[in-house]
Amino acid sequence: MTGHDMKHDHGGDGYKKNSITLGGAVAMGTGVMIGAGIFALTGQIAELAGPLFPIAFIIGAIVTGFSSYSYIKMSNAWPSAGGIGMILQKCYGPGAVAAGAALLMALSMVIAESLVARTFATYLLRPFDIEGGPLVPILAVGVILFAFLVNIAGNRSIGLFSMVMAAIKIGGIALFGIAALWSSGFEFAAASRDAVDFGPMGFVASVALAILAFKGFTTITNSGAEITDPNRNVGRAIMISIALCVVVYLLVAFGVGSSLTIDEIIAAKDYSLAEAAEPALGQVGFLLTVLLAVVATASAVLASVFAVSRMLAMLTNMKMIPHSHFGMSGPIQRHTLVYTVVIASFLAVFFDLSRIASLGAFFYLTMDMAVHWGVWRYRRAEIGASGVIILAALGFDAIILVAFTAMKLQSDPAIVAYAALTIAGVFLFERAYLSRWLAPQDEPAHS
């Protein structure tokens, strides 16, 4: 289904060509990335990587740069509102492999949503010295429902809101990093008092979480049909977003590392930015950081709910997932919004931050490998892509996934089992629904 077919706006369910500028696309990408990456994952990454955690962000960015190559080349050839669904369908045909991998992507986005929603709750409770307890899931579900209501209001409000929020977030977080570094005299304190051996395996596993901090670039791919001059601007928006995020993440990593030791970062891993702000910037700085975190995470949930419901609506339109109205009226995207909110709320209630992040890493890396393999195997020559870069991206993903799995088998084997069962379940469900794994390549797929 092309952007042209969908130009007529059906109650906020439509896609308008040329409605997103390059700046708007960058704001959307960074809006999704910066909410999750920095507030939810800094402490989780430090827990695995130790004092080297800022380097994990750099390597995560490099791996993401390699990963983005397949998406950019495919989006340049076929800019589409189908985004990742379109890329997978172009590679594997409309079968269970494409549909299963696309559904994993959608699920990893829902997981990111619940991750950020729980982070919102954790930061909001910091000034009251409340850690854990029933208020965390209650507030997390509250912010997801708020995002649902704003999304129902229509997407014009979302475009403007995410532009303003992206500017506040990037500016505010960069200022926090600079101020924290400045007050510490540019000293990096993050050494561990206990001689903990973090090890190379822990470091590689930390990169898996760092990649989650950058995966928001895929949101840009999903809006290909609406971005102005998409054949050039989709790729540009992706590269600018990743570059901006690297700068912001490094400022924060060094800012946190300059005012807290590794042990303190790990102890406060769910709210490490607020913790780092207090010694560096005093009580006012602490409260401003909490406020910034609350605004950033709320807006990231908002952008994410919109992106996931859009993706699920596209997959439904592409006949890649079954659809039940459950008695609801209105357009498909309204229904997919409801599914998204229900699943994200369930996760936010029953899983803690590190488990949610782990599930997201498993799903995302599996989907990403399916994209690279498909592009390398079926479309490489047609889109003029370098096989070496695609295979490098595939290799990086494989190494990181193996290290991450090994690490989690030691520390939390249950989450590996949940991830494996869900991934297998998604593919088997799609196989039963679509009755074939692959479809002939020369069929005219949706563009």
From TrEMBL:
Subcellular localization: Cell membrane
Membrane-related topology note: Multi-pass membrane protein
Positions of transmembrane segments: 20-46, 52-72, 92-112, 132-153, 160-182, 202-225, 237-260, 280-313, 334-351, 357-376, 388-409, 415-434
GO molecular function, one term: transmembrane transporter activity
Pfam families for the chain: AA_permease_2 (PF13520)
Keyword set includes Chaperone: no
Principal location listed in the UniProt entry: membrane
UniProt GO cellular component terms: plasma membrane
Keyword check for Membrane: yes
Signal sequence, start to end: none
Record keywords: Cell membrane, Membrane, Transmembrane, Transmembrane helix
Domain of life: Bacteria
Name of the molecule in the record: Amino acid permease
Source organism of the structure: Pseudaestuariivita atlantica
